[in-house]
Prior knowledge:
Layout (H helix, E strand, L loop, with lengths): L6 E10 L2 E4 L6 E3 L13 H16 L3 E9 L5 E7 L3
Parallel strand pairs: 3-5
Antiparallel strand pairs: 1-2, 1-4, 2-3, 4-5
Amino acid sequence: MGDLPNTWDGKAYAVSGDSMAGIGLKPRLRLWGIRAPEFGSDLNVPAMRARAALEDMLAAGEHKVSCRVAGWDRLCRAVAQCTITAE
């Protein structure tokens, strides 16, 4: 897999309310400073709403983001501070 870069620019899509997957990027990115409800084994409306809110923000910016990686969380996701970069 190689080293994760300190910064990453690209297209991303919401996986949950506080994490996203980047096209061509592994592992998933967890958003620094955001805590959202987790998906469980049953229907979880708060988690679905949180994911939809993040996806709406990403869609408004054409899914273009710029991220600075700060570290790793317990689920092996890179923790990053991200901004939407579309004009």
